[in-house]
Amino acid sequence: GRQTAGRGRLGRRFVSPEGGLYLSLLASPPEGGGPEAVTLLSAVAVCRAIEEMTPLKTRIKWVNDIFVGNKKVSGILAERIEAGVIVGIGVNLQTPPGGFPPEAGIAGALDVPADANALAGRIAALIFKGLEAPNDPAILSEYRQRMFLTGQRVSYQEAGREYRGLVLGVSPDGGLIVSRDGEERVLRSGEVTVGSHLVSRLE
Questions:
Q1: Radius of gyration over alpha carbons of the chain, in Å?
Q2: What sections of 96-186 are H helices per DSSP?
């Protein structure tokens, strides 16, 4: 129902107020895969579960955030440990009284009737089902269809310099494919912005 010390990417605080859904799963990634593959699968699973159980439509903000409209309603963090990959998922079910704190940024909530236990069970079932067929091309295809940076011009940092490029899509291992000066590059670190808006910060 809540977290007292929720953590996001790069050690940032993940705001976890009462009324949200917070769960962690231990996943066995496909051979040769890792947190990136589990992140892609989990993002698709969260989108599917929300759309099955509510009238809402979801999109993915690369790499690991789920949006409804222009608000972030869910975040995902996958980390490798000795036993496999821990995937932590937070879903904002209802806007807390008084709204989200300023540090939550563009956080939003489903704000429609949704049973937390049923949603948690459906998310977990979809993730574990997906791990049974880790090479199913439908997962990557759906992730790419839902990811809303494709076709946008972005600024990004690489080796301490800033560049501009056109987002072409997502690579099979979760990198952002960008075209710059006629050459394709796969980004796996740095910051990505559209205009002045930071859309992704990678480890």
A1: 17
A2: 116-132, 137-146
Nearest to 93 by CA among 75, 77, 108: 108
Distance CA 8, CA 200 (A): 13
Residue with tokens 């076709």: 151
Dist CA 35 CA 14 (whole Å): 18
Q: Which helix (H) or strand (E) holds 21?
A: strand 21-27
Most confident of 29-33, 120-124, 133-137, 182-186: 120-124
pLDDT of residue 14: 67
Share of the chain above pLDDT 70, in %: 86
The string of pLDDT tens digits covering residues 116-132 is: 999 999 999 999 999 98
Give dist(CA 120, CA 124) in Å, integer.
6
- 3-class state of residue 189 by DSSP: coil
* 63 residue type, one letter: V
CA separation for the pair 194, 166 (Å, rounded): 10
For 54-196, strand residue ranges (E) read 59-61, 65-68, 71-81, 84-91, 153-158, 161-170, 176-180, 183-187, 190-194
Q: Which residues contact 77 (CB under 8 A, 6 or more apart)?
A: 7, 8, 9, 14, 64, 87, 88
